[in-house]
Design a protein that fits this description.
This protein is 31% helix and 20% strand. The chain has one domain (48-81, 127-399): 3-Layer(aba) Sandwich (Rossmann fold). It is of the alpha/beta class. It starts with a helix and ends with a helix. Bound molecules: beta-D-galactopyranuronic acid.
Length: 401
């Protein structure tokens, strides 16, 4: 009887333990087992020319790398639409006990017979009388994390902290652009661009979220409370993959924050540490292009690696993070991405002071253009993380007044 019960418990556990957890256990977390690898040379063009100045970088190499990411990883970024409109649906002059103004804005984008609506929550510091810089979060968690009423407060989007530091803070939810589901993701932006679904290098969910960030940017350019030259796009995990892609595709973003973004985010693929391409393509087939599936178990044959994604954002600053208990997102590989992007920043005369090895836990590197920290704890976006984003942004924006 007892044996039977134990067995049943075991079966129940095996059934309810998500596949994800089992795969996590099988991943490599041993630094000694990281294979020898050679990163593609970010400063060598497809025709083998060495890039030695920013002119050649911008004219020849940057576009080449962007196209490689579009074709192989994130897909096309369709730019054309018929019309965009902005409606402020709710406004409060004295939100957060008078510290902020709240605006809820519906951004509607029309193309042909289809349209998509992006619901933006935006708080602006009440005390500031001129356009302010803004943090824009691509929210991949529950909408309650960005509660406009502030009845619910979440470290995931600590609006009060940003406001008290003199920043506006905004957020939209990924499901407005592409529901995060392998069958439902088509019900959003992709209704405007159905041809993308037929293309092996077509836009998928991560691309759709990044596209949404750019439409919010379109709105910021029209909102007089916002300094559209100082927009920081922020994302956590899958949202951090999208924030990098948004900043790579849209140079209007002044800065990018990618929190615990891991595989196909800020972490190098070739290290094959933690999550790998096969696993991400299998669990989340709707995130990246069909072409990306060709690189399952073949990281070495990718024509890019993630340091090149960071390089596309140069000379604009990038801040990346990790957490000690989130080896799945490969902290060291994330740091090495930043490190290997340094040479592109150097073309702009920007020297970052990254040491060869990652900094100790909770010793953030806060000097633009490339910043990084690893925090104690789990895979998450916390007040500790936001505190560093604000310091990093302060350093950058005050140096550019
Ligand atoms: C995981 C996924 C990661 C990361 C994470 C998240 O399951 O494997 O790539 O994106 O989800 O978004 O929290």
């Amino acid at each position: 009887m007892r044996m039977k019960k134990v067995f049943l418990v075991f079966i129940a556990f095996a059934v309810v333990t998500p596949l994800a957890a089992q795969d996590h256990d099988e991943a490599n977390y041993d630094e000694a087992k990281v294979p020898a690898y050679t990163l593609p040379d970010v400063l060598k063009t497809g025709t083998n020319k060495q890039v030695s100045n920013k002119g050649v970088w911008e004219k020849s190499r940057r576009g080449e790398i962007l196209t490689l990411f579009e074709n192989n990883v994130y897909g096309q970024m369709p730019k054309a639409y018929d019309r965009i409109s902005y409606a402020v649906t709710h406004e409060e002059a004295a939100a957060m006990n008078g510290r902020a103004r709240l605006k809820q804005v519906v951004i509607s984008v029309f193309k042909g017979d289809s349209s998509v609506k992006i619901n933006l929550v935006l708080f602006v510091p009440a005390s500031v009388k001129k356009p302010v810089p803004v943090f824009l979060l691509i929210n991949n968690r529950g909408r309650e994390n960005t509660d406009p009423t502030r009845a619910a407060k979440s470290e995931f989007w600590p609006a009060e902290m940003a406001i008290d530091s003199g920043y506006a803070i905004a957020a939209f939810h990924v499901s407005d652009l592409a529901p995060d589901d392998k069958t439902q993701f088509v019900n959003g932006v992709l209704r405007l661009y159905p041809e993308q679904l037929l293309m092996a290098n077509g836009m998928r969910a991560i691309g759709a979220w990044a596209w949404g960030a750019s439409r919010v940017m379109d709105y910021f350019e029209k909102d007089r409370d916002i300094d559209a030259k100082k927009v920081v796009v922020v994302g956590h995990s899958r949202g951090g993959k999208a924030s990098l892609w948004a900043a790579a595709e849209d140079t209007r973003f002044a800065m990018c924050v990618s929190n615990c973004s891991g595989n196909t985010g800020a972490a190098l693929a070739r290290r094959q540490f933690g999550e790998r391409i096969r696993r991400i393509n299998t669990t989340f087939p709707h995130w990246f292009t069909d072409n990306y599936k060709k690189f399952n178990d073949r990281e070495d044959s990718l024509p890019v690696d993630q340091h090149m994604l960071i390089s596309l954002i140069a000379p604009r600053p990038v801040y990346a993070t990790n957490a000690t208990k989130d080896l799945w997102a490969d902290p060291k590989g994330t740091y090495l991405s930043l490190k290997n992007a340094e040479k592109v920043y150097a073309l702009y005369g920007l020297s970052s002071r990254l040491s060869p090895d990652p900094p100790p836990v909770e010793k953030p590197l806060l000097e633009p253009p490339l910043g990084y920290h690893i925090r104690e704890g789990e895979h998450n976006l916390t007040a500790y993380d936001w505190t560093q984003f604000i310091i990093f942004a302060n350093h950058y924006f005050t140096s550019r007044k």
